[in-house]
Design brief:
It is a single chain. The protein is of the alpha+beta class. It has helices at 2-7, 10-54, 60-85, 90-107, 109-124, 164-168, 195-208, 243-261, and strands at residues 132-135, 138-145, 149-153, 159-163, 172-174, 180-182, 185-189, 219-225, 230-235, 237-239. The chain has a 5-stranded antiparallel sheet with strand order 4-3-2-1-5. A hairpin with a 5-residue loop joins strand 3 (149-153) and strand 4. The model has no long low-confidence stretch (mean pLDDT 83).
Length: 281
């Protein structure tokens, strides 16, 4: 053992240090420096990104998600640069990561579709939390818009989770987007009822409801001479929050008022006529 140790002279040790230890030490130090400086630069860039996005009107969930994606991509570059400094073949590493990403993307096509749709919903904002919408065949109030799904509550208090891809690829009706809405109602009276009196009553009722807006002006007009009734259209404008209240209250009030005034509201009926025939003698 002592003889083997004696074989290493001072010049051999010095050569080993100069050939291996110092270059590797420098490379390791440079790799660590690249990683540390890279993290600092990434932090500064993310700080700038947060300040810029804070001045925008984008949803905070989208901002946080984009920040995490940008952070991951930038840190990947920093790690690759550090490994490259150590002499690691980063070309093969990048190729492996690309192939893995492609395989994952192909296996998660539906999820990626929902993700892309979620980003579009958060960017373009066809609706927001609290709006009442009809989307992907589901009508309800929006509770939360996520990256992959949107959570809605139906009028009968059922929670429904709808994939964002289904929402964005179909027609979206936002009942809360505008401050005002028009209530469309049809009121029928019998042919023997007083037409002018019925119209005057409807106009009076519309004018008396404080929830009904004066502008745009409400409409009360005869729209159809139906098979068993003369139909009026009653179309007042209201605040969106008053839509259902006005519709329900006005419908009930019309029935009570017409009963009081003796104006008949017809209902479908059929008259059957029997003809008696006698046999010829």
């Amino acid at each position: 053992m002592e003889e083997n140790l004696s074989m290493f002279t001072a010049s051999d040790i010095e050569g080993y240090i100069n050939t291996y230890a110092i270059p590797w030490g420098i490379n390791i130090a440079m790799a660590v420096a690249i990683y540390v400086v890279g993290r600092i630069v990434v932090g500064l860039l993310l700080s700038v990104f947060r300040r810029v996005m804070a001045k925008s009107k984008y949803d905070q969930m989208l901002v946080d998600f984009l920040e995490s994606i940008i952070s991951a991509i930038l840190m990947l570059f920093v790690i690759v640069a550090s490994l490259d400094q150590l002499g690691v073949d980063t070309t093969s590493l990048v190729a492996i990561l690309g192939a893995a990403g492609l395989a994952i993307g192909l296996s998660l096509q539906d999820s990626l579709k929902n993700f892309a749709a979620g980003v579009m919903l958060l960017v373009f904002k066809p609706f927001k939390a609290g709006d009442f919408v009809d989307a992907a065949g589901t009508a309800g109030s929006v509770n939360k818009i996520g990256i992959f799904t949107t959570t809605m509550t139906t009028p009968d208090n059922k929670e429904i989770i709808v994939p964002n891809g289904a929402i964005y690829s179909n027609t979206i009706t936002n009942f809360s987007a505008k401050e005002t809405r028009r209530v469309d109602m049809v009121v029928g009276i019998g042919y023997d009822a007083d037409l002018k009196k019925a119209k005057a009553i409807l106009q009076e009722m519309v004018a008396a409801d404080e929830r009904i807006l004066q502008e745009p002006a409400p409409t009360v007009a005869v729209s159809e001479l139906a098979d068993s009734s003369v139909n009026f259209v009653v179309r007042p404008w209201v605040k969106s929050s008053d839509f259902w209240g006005v519709k329900f209250d006005f419908t009930e009030a019309v029935k009570l008022r017409f009963d009081k005034e003796g104006i008949s509201i017809p209902f479908p009926q059929m008259d059957v006529h029997l003809h008696k025939t006698t046999e010829a003698e």
